[in-house]
Design goal:
148 residues, alpha+beta, 4-stranded antiparallel sheet
Length: 148
């Protein structure tokens, strides 16, 4: 064999090394793609949970009166909710204090209102972790315990 005949093709070792490099590159690309899909799914779940929390918070505010409560329930689709309403402060206006010449009105109460939405990690991010969002605000209302 001459020198020219020996340079004609790849050896088995060179082919195996090239296949190993290609397999590693494909593995890295696959892993990156799966991470991107899991992040997209998590972002969608957070967005949906935020909308659900806003809806629950609006429903609590639209009830007209508030009272202390701590309640939980299933919101469907794997989401769970928790409502918390707690008294922060109450002002009782008596005749001759802050409003002279007026009769005492019902107590005005400041409530801390919070809504939490929780869910388990999705299919792509099935790490078993509990995820959640919480919205909190304060509302002033007539004390529902005494009535208007």
């Amino acid at each position: 064999m001459t020198g020219r005949d020996q340079d004609r093709g790849f050896t088995l070792l060179e082919v195996l090394i090239a296949l190993a490099i290609a397999a590693l590159a494909l593995g890295v690309l696959f892993h990156g793609t799966m991470d991107g899909l899991a992040a997209t799914q998590a972002a969608g779940q957070y967005e949906e949970a935020l909308e659900r929390a806003r809806s629950h918070l609006a429903a609590l505010a639209d009830r007209g009166t508030l009272a202390p409560l701590d309640d939980t329930g299933d919101d469907g689709g794997g989401y769970r909710w928790r409502h918390r309403v707690a008294v922060v402060a109450t002002e009782i206006s008596a005749p001759g204090t802050s409003r002279p010449n007026q009769a005492a009105g019902p107590p005005i109460t400041l409530y801390a209102v919070s809504v939490a939405i929780t869910w388990s990690a999705g299919i792509l991010g099935a790490d078993g972790r509990e995820r959640g969002v919480t919205l909190a605000t304060e509302r002033v209302a007539v004390d529902a315990r005494t009535g208007p």
